[in-house]
Design goal:
Number of helices of chain B: 23
Helix content of chain A: 10-25%
CATH superfamily of one domain in chain B: FAD/NAD(P)-binding domain
Radius of gyration of chain A: 14 Å
Number of helices of chain A: 2
Chains: A mainly beta (about 90), B alpha+beta (about 1000), C alpha+beta (about 180)
Structural class of chain A: mainly beta
CATH class of one domain in chain B: Alpha Beta
Strand content of chain A: 35-45%
Shape of chain A: globular
Largest sheet of chain B: 7 strands, mixed
CATH topology of one domain in chain B: FAD/NAD(P)-binding domain
Largest interface: B-C, 59 and 56 residues
Strand order of the largest sheet of chain A: 3-4-5-6
Distance between the termini of chain A: 28 Å
Number of strands of chain A: 6
Radius of gyration of chain B: 38 Å
Structural class of chain B: alpha+beta
Oligomer: heterotrimer
Number of domains of chain A: 1
CATH superfamily of chain A: Folate-binding superfamily
Helix content of chain B: 10-25%
Number of strands of chain B: 49
Order of helices and strands of chain A: EEEHEEEH
Chain lengths: ~90, ~1000, ~180
């Protein structure tokens, strides 16, 4: 498996660490209520198809990435910087 | 029998280089260029193995890596390597091979009795027979079966042979160097692509090395050699002979096993094998095809071989596998074999063609029919031929069989693709797009003439070049054989007795039919019920035949029946190659502190803390038990001064205009309010409200902090801070970087710590310049360092940091000065006791399931700000008074010991899971207090101080009663650290 | 008053030559991390040019020359190898002089040695002189630079010096022994 890091180019998967759904970037407001927080912390879809995942380029440039990957075909459709996805500054 | 080879100019062996080798202790001669298989056949060794289940005599069947029978063990002792295929072992001087799965000898094998009991050993035998009594399975049946059935054995000793792993990258990977692969590689290489050409054989050329045919007006093998020589001269081509591509993985990554030095007697430091990860933008599968047998009664005798293998032995190695050879087939491969035998001067006893209307121009006894049986216990003596006029017996010591050819499409199926059935060639062929970026060419693609192979190789390369953005130039395709392929399906010959499909797992036609009758109609179920295709050859010789028979038995077509799943590896892989480099020191990096050498010189045993090595304790003369050392070292800190290397703690430099806000967000408590030149203890939660880590953070200037983490969580915290910085709060202007490795940092702890430092520092310190929790710059002999007045022991203590190059020197200096003051160095054991005495937590307590509330630090959760984990930590379940919460424990029963991991129960209650009240996390003997102390979690713990509870360690068999105490055992007011 | 003695990370471990490949330790006067704050990128690059004649490097590149080189070392960050830097406004700077094991690997076969340690694409047409990468070296996160036709700079954390030398030695032995087959 290879991930095309926006900084470093295509790199072997052993440089990266996986950390679950990219939903983790959408941190709710502290007052959003228990249901919203419960969904944010615990509830994840398990799709057969495209999914957005967080990967950390741990032995590379240390960028957090949002990888859009198909769990059926293993195709990687997009790799974006988490900072860019979050949309504020850099 | 070795023949002169005058029919083809002497084959690919070097008769000028004779080699000695042994098989089962007997010495034989072969030549350079031989495989073990060709050399054994040249010496008329026909029986080379006993079969897996029935212990039937078996001989060499093929000339390649698909060989099911001729598995041997090489070497003895630690280097013993079992289950190697004699057909792929290159002969070298002194090679010593042994047969397997026989006792006491290959010739006289006791378990050949199994063969007589065969009627009882059909498919599903184990499942049906060994069901009762249940306990017998593990104790009796399985060990007995494992001894009887099987392959070779490992020595059980550590293997000192070298193996390696390596990475390679290319534009185009060509798998297989036969006519298609060579043409593809040449086409791509001439266009400037980076090409890797991998072939599992020693000599590139594929079938051209085994056939008598011309390419471009010269002998095929010479044409191949010329082309390989041209490729070898090109900088953009890497030739990888002896390299089997074993698997296809995501993103154009291919696994490949290279036999590096197995073919030489003295490899020196060269690895035996190398496992390659090859990354290729495009790949061409030109792995050729495998000939398949026909099942008939007793079709497994030594001497019954594949027709193509017979030609390979004749033409490449100049070995006649028999003196009188019968040839049987359902396609032209049989006729070609007969012609080659005649050319080599070998008697053809019979040519049997099963195709309707078959005929021949060759001057041989010709039969239109089928072979239906064989004779000869340890080697073929005769075959029975069924024709329209009845059954005729013909004497022969070798039978060459061809049931057709299966494209070698295995790796194209590794990403879940399923091949398509091609009725014209009666075989499965790869479908385009099964693996992104991989295309099949030549006979791997179902093209069975040399001319077609050459053309498809060139075409596939052209397409790959276009994908790569390179300009292709159409190469000239040399003249070559272009006969049409004519075949009539023939899977098994009707008749009584056992007809073998899977030679390696002893699966017969009957077994497959039985599976079908017992409703294992799915090919995947049939496979598992009969073990068809589950041997090391993974059914390369038998899967298609077996599923064709299953299709027939279940009244379905072959495409309806489908294939089983092909998975990596294509050929057996040694674990040593996959795990190469990961033994011993290669397992994981070793991280050594700057005090490592001095610590080892002091005789301290090391313990591993993550990747770090830290001293357990520093033994003194006369001490015979670690507890003596530990007690003494605790005393250093409580009474004088102790020195401990704390460089392994994570140190993260945090700078930027928004650094204060950033820290307020990741810690539960406030850091924006921390004064410059001061240090504060901080607690970090995960977003789910549980504690992640703790440590002290110093404010070096207005927008500059230095965070410390625990040794264990340094990497995790760095990753977490980066996620917060990049993914949650990219609005904050803050930069973070690890400085763990820049600084050598030592704890100087104890009542005499300041006295020690003031003898060292360029300028003395006092309570005013370095108050409790103060920090600042210092110099030692002109070297700039940092000093922190922090304490993990509860004593007046400091941590002093200098650039790491001075670490060794500073440690030695601190240690000797401490010794002069009645103290010395202390290790992890003493450090642990000191912190338990003070009730300071480590990851034994913050183990991932505890909250700030549980460890008694709920007061550190600021109400004035949001922080990671705040919302979730306030969930009622995480603030429940009934939760297990931190307490101190001391033994009060007859047993004066505590053990970490033990569980707590109410006094008098039975020690059962239902009655569980908590557990012990840390224990140590406190020389300061004179008894064992422990930390643990107890339901409603803080409310139960003074109560007696029962401690039971089921694992170690330790039981006592404990008094529940305040977790701070020593100096609860904290005056010793502050004063 | 005390006299502290300095020790390099590879003290007692290098140099090492096996076959045609040599590995030597490199000591820089200073290694400084440089990470511009928001919007300060070009100002910091200009300041760096003034101090050492080389700009802030782009991702996967180095600038400058031996003994005065800046190497891109991750998101928004460079390591300046060589001269000690005066403070540059608008950037986070840390002293990393003692944090890294720095070695040079050179000779025919240096690339083959590295191919046993890193999954990085090392083909000369891809990893050119002046290129750099944060990548995995054996099991370690490190910095890899191509500083000549057959010369590479490798950096891993100081504490891992012994492991780096061990893994290089095994790979060098293997490459040399393959050449003798």
């Amino acid at each position: 498996m290879r991930i095309n890091c926006p900084h470093c180019g295509p790199r072997d998967r052993r440089e990266f660490t996986y950390q679950g759904d990219a939903l983790a970037l959408d941190r709710p407001d502290p007052e959003a209520g228990p249901d919203v927080w419960n969904d944010y912390i615990h509830n994840r879809d398990n799709p057969a198809g495209p999914t957005r995942e967080l990967w950390y380029h741990e032995t590379g440039c240390a960028a957090w990435l949002v990888v859009t990957r198909d769990t059926v075909t293993h195709d990687i459709h997009a790799v974006e910087l988490a900072s860019a996805v979050k949309g504020a500054g850099k | 029998m070795r023949i002169s080879g005058s029919h083809n100019g002497g084959g690919l062996i070097d008769r000028g280089k004779p080699l000695r080798f042994t098989f089962d202790g007997h010495s034989y001669q072969g030549f350079a260029g031989d495989t073990l298989a060709s050399a054994l056949l040249a010496n008329d060794i026909r029986m080379v193995a006993r079969s897996f289940k029935y212990h039937r005599p078996r001989g060499i069947m093929t000339a390649g890596s698909e060989e099911p029978n001729a598995l041997v063990t090489l070497g003895t002792g630690a280097a013993q390597e079992p289950n190697l295929r004699a057909t792929t072992l290159e002969l070298h001087d002194g090679l010593a091979a042994h047969s397997q799965n026989r006792w006491p000898s290959l010739d006289w094998d006791l378990l050949a009795l199994n063969d007589l009991a065969a009627p009882f050993f059909g498919a599903g035998f184990y499942y049906k027979t060994f069901m009762w009594p249940r306990a017998f399975w593990e104790k009796l049946y399985e060990p007995a079966i494992r001894r009887a059935a099987g392959l070779g054995a490992l020595s059980g000793q550590p293997n000192a042979d070298r193996y390696e792993k390596a990475f390679a990258h290319c534009d185009l990977l060509v798998v297989g160097a036969g006519p298609a692969g060579l043409m593809a590689a040449l086409t791509a290489a001439r266009a400037g692509a980076d090409v890797i050409l991998a072939d599992e054989d020693t000599v590139m050329g594929g079938r051209l090395n085994a056939e008598n045919e011309e390419v471009g007006g010269q002998p095929g093998r010479e044409w191949a050699a010329g082309l390989v020589a041209e490729l070898a001269e090109m900088d953009n081509v890497r030739l990888m002979p002896r390299t089997a591509v074993t698997g296809v993985f995501d993103g154009g990554t291919y696994g490949a096993l290279e036999r590096v030095s197995m073919h030489v007697a003295s490899p020196g430091q060269a690895p035996r094998e190398c496992f390659w990860r090859i990354v290729a933008r495009r790949a061409i599968l030109a792995a050729g095809s495998l000939e398949r047998p026909v099942a008939f009664q007793n079709n497994d005798r030594p001497g019954i071989m594949m027709a193509g293998a017979v030609r390979a032995y004749l033409n490449r190695w100049n070995v006649a596998p028999g003196r009188s050879v019968a040839v049987f087939g359902n396609n032209d491969s049989a006729h070609r074999t007969a012609a080659d035998l005649i050319a080599a001067g070998i008697n053809v006893a019979a040519l049997i063609d099963a195709r309707p209307g078959a005929k021949t121009d060759l001057d041989v006894p010709f039969y239109h029919g089928q072979v239906c049986g064989s004779e000869g216990r340890k080697g073929l003596e005769a075959v029975s031929i069924a024709t329209q006029s009845g059954i005729e017996k013909v004497q022969a010591d070798c039978l060459a069989v061809s049931g057709g050819w299966n494209p070698t499409l295995h790796i194209a199926c590794h990403m879940n693709g399923r091949p398509a059935w091609d009725e014209k060639i009666v075989a499965f062929v790869p479908k385009p797009g099964m693996v992104p970026g991989l295309a099949a060419a030549g006979s791997a693609n179902g093209a069975f003439s040399t001319a077609q192979c050459l053309a498809q190789g060139a075409d596939a390369a052209q397409e790959a070049l276009a994908d790569l953005g390179l300009k292709p130039a159409k190469p000239e395709i040399p003249q070559a054989e272009d006969d049409p392929y004519s075949i009539t399906a023939l899977w098994s010959v009707p008749g009584k007795g056992r007809a073998w499909l899977d030679f390696q797992n002893d699966v017969t036609v009957k077994d497959v039919n039985l599976a079908a009758r017992e409703s294992y109609a799915s090919v995947e179920h049939m496979k598992r019920y009969t073990t068809q295709g589950m041997a090391p050859d993974q059914g390369k010789n038998s899967n298609v035949n077996a599923l064709a028979i299953l299709a027939d038995a279940t009244g379905r077509s072959i495409p309806e029946t489908g294939t089983t799943t092909y998975r990596p590896p294509f050929v057996p892989l040694t674990m040593a190659a996959i795990g190469a480099g990961a033994q011993g020191k290669g397992f994981a990096p070793q991280r050594f502190t700057t005090s490592h050498a001095a610590t080892e010189e002091a005789g301290a045993p090391m313990i591993e803390a993550g990747l770090w090595y830290r001293p357990s304790y520093f033994p003194a003369p006369g001490e015979t038990h670690w507890r003596q050392s530990c007690d003494r070292e605790v005393g250093y800190v409580r009474n004088a001064v102790g020195i401990c290397d704390v460089s392994t703690l994570g140190k993260i430099d945090i700078q930027g205009p928004d650094a204060p806000e950033f820290l307020d967000f990741v810690y539960t408590n406030m850091f924006s309010t921390l004064k410059v030149g001061r240090t504060r203890y901080g607690l970090m939660l995960r977003e789910d409200g549980h504690v992640m880590d703790d440590g002290t953070t110093a404010r070096l200037s207005e927008h500059h902090y230095l965070m410390t983490t625990t040794t264990a969580a340094a990497g995790q915290v760095m990753r977490h801070l980066e996620l917060v910085r990049q993914g949650l709060r990219p609005d904050l202007d803050v930069q973070i970087i690890s400085v763990t490795e820049q600084w050598a940092q030592f704890a100087v702890a104890g009542p005499k710590s300041r006295e020690l430092l003031n003898g060292l520092l360029d300028a003395p310190i006092d309570d005013e310049s370095f108050p409790f929790m103060g920090c600042g710059d210092i110099t030692l002999g002109g070297v700039a360092g940092r000093l922190f007045r922090i304490s993990f022991s509860g004593e007046h203590a400091y941590e002093i940091a200098v650039p790491a190059r001075f670490g060794d020197s500073l440690f030695r200096t601190l240690k000797s000065r401490a010794e002069a003051l009645g103290g010395g160095a202390y290790g992890m054991e003493a450090l642990n006791v000191l912190r338990i005495e003070k009730g300071f937590i480590t990851h034994s307590e913050i183990h991932g399931r505890t909250t700030a509330f549980d460890v008694g630090l709920q007061g550190m959760m600021s109400k004035k700000k949001d922080f990671i984990g705040k919302t979730a930590s306030q969930r009622p379940g995480l603030m429940d008074e009934d939760r297990e919460r931190l307490v101190g424990l001391k033994p009060t029963g007859a047993v004066k010991q505590l053990t970490a991991g033990a569980h707590l129960f109410n006094d008098g209650a039975e020690a059962t899971r239902e009655n569980d009240q908590g557990y012990v996390t840390s224990v140590g003997f406190s020389p300061t207090l004179g008894h064992f102390i422990g930390l643990g979690f107890l339901k409603r713990g803080p409310e139960r101080i003074g109560e007696t509870v029962r401690m039971v360690d089921h694992l170690r068999g330790v039981e006592t009663t404990c008094e529940v105490c305040n977790p701070v055992f020593f100096d609860p007011e904290g005056g010793r650290a502050r004063d | 008053m005390t006299d502290l003695l300095a020790k390099s990370p590879c003290d007692g471990l290098l140099p090492l030559t096996i076959g045609s490949v040599t590995v030597t330790e490199i000591a820089f006067d200073a290694i400084t991390s440089l990470a511009p704050f928001k919007g300060q990128e070009s100002a910091v690059s200009d300041a760096l040019k003034v101090q050492m004649g080389a700009a802030f490097p782009k991702p996967n590149r180095t600038t400058g020359k031996a003994h005065a080189r800046a190497v891109w070392s991750g998101v928004g960050q460079a390591l300046v190898l060589g001269p000690p830097l005066a403070p540059i406004p608008g950037a986070a700077m840390t002293d990393q002089t003692d944090a890294w094991t720095c070695v040079a690997l050179e000779g025919d076969g240096a690339r083959d040695v590295l191919a046993r340690l890193t999954p990085l694409d090392l083909r000369p047409s891809v990893f050119k002189q002046g290129h750099a990468a944060r990548t995995e070296i054996a099991h370690m996160g490190g910095v890899l630079m191509r500083t000549g036709e057959n010369r590479y700079g490798l950096m891993v954390f100081r504490s891992m010096a012994a492991t780096l030398v061990h893994d290089l030695e095994i790979a060098m032995q293997s490459v040399a022994a393959r050449g003798r087959l």
